[in-house]
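dumping this here before i forget
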Amino acid sequence: DEDGNIVLYEDNPINIQEFPSPISIQGFIIYPNPAQNQITIALDLDKIYELEGLTAKVFSSSGSCITEFPVYNFMETINTELLPPGIYSILLQNSEKTLGSGKFIIAR
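structure:
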């Protein structure tokens, strides 16, 4: 949501491609990784320089989109307390295309 909290969606599986490892994320950095209760997304200003219409989608390891939220800042901190431990994929998209993708781990 707009306060940076994860809002879980109903389980709605989709097919997604395998994403690069956290080290080779294109367009942004996720830290800490692994995380416990929050992650920070820091955009690479050389690759993503326009925030208008930018959204992030988080997918479970089974391919379900579990949350989607707008990205308003070049550095966003996201509360992940409601996510169970596991591996998650994240996509950054604008209205035209996917700008970056990566994985993060929730470990408690």
